[in-house]
Amino acid sequence: MIKEISGVIIECVMGNIADQPDMMAIVNAANAHLRPGGGVAGAIHRAAGPGLEEECQKYAPIEPGQAVITAGYNLPNKYVIHTLGPVYGVDKPEAKLLSDCYRNSLLLAEQHGIDSIAFPAISTGYFRYPLEQATDVALKTVIEMIPQLKQVKKIRFVLFSESDLVVYKAELARLTGS
Ligand code: AR6
């Protein structure tokens, strides 16, 4: 599914965040210590190689909602933006912290001249944020940011299952009135 809002393309696809070769940056659903871990972080660190973890140690630990940027190492992407989502039911207020992840990642992308960026569904795996609620926060935050974006021209949401993709598509259609 592809939508264009004020010259910025928003896409929702099913796939692996570590296999998005046409994106200048990908976003990591990181842990506070910026270590490999499982899920998205594990896939990204495996594909990037040990240089990524080494650079990450300069910035760790990070707080929920914060984002930091590194090179992409063996990934096909120039940059990785690492952000720490809230653990649902623990880090509060969850919606604000999750929104901060998307906003701060996009602000870093703007500062680094990034024209295309792919996001996973932050916090919806090990951190147990309910997918529908997290989707609402993710898409609303990105759409709100569009008027401020001068560098970012393409934003891709990469979902790990067909059922997650269905939720994203429905929410994007609802928010964009089509
Ligand atoms: N590509 C795209 N999406 C994925 C992939 C992938 N390769 N792998 C999982 N997902 P999670 P979190 C989906 O757990 O909830 C880690 O251990 C997954 O189905 O990666 O923010 C870190 O080290 C889910 O929908 O991130 C942290 O400790 C979404 O991506 C902690 O988990 C996020 O799942 C972060 O937890």
Unreliable runs? none
Give the CA-based shape. globular
Task: Summarize the helix and strand pattern as letters.
Answer: EEEHHEEHEHEH
Rg, Cα atoms, Å: 15 Å
Report the helical percentage: 25-40%
Mean pLDDT: 97
Keywords:
178 residues; alpha/beta; Leucine Aminopeptidase, subunit E, domain 1; 7-stranded mixed sheet; 7 strands; globular; binds ligand AR6; Macro_dom; Macro_dom-like; Macro domain-containing protein
Describe this structure as you would to a colleague.
The chain is of the alpha/beta class. It has a single domain (about 1-175), classed as Leucine Aminopeptidase, subunit E, domain 1. About 35% of the residues lie in helices and about 20% in strands. The chain is built from five helices and seven strands; from the N terminus they run E-E-E-H-H-E-E-H-E-H-E-H. It has a seven-stranded mixed β-sheet, with helices on both faces. Helix 3 (about 95-110) packs parallel to helix 4 and helix 4 (about 130-145) crosses helix 5. The radius of gyration is 15 Å and the shape is globular. The N and C termini lie close together (about 10 Å). The structure holds ligand AR6. Ligand AR6 binds near residues 39, 122, 123 and 164. Ligand AR6 binds next to helix 1.
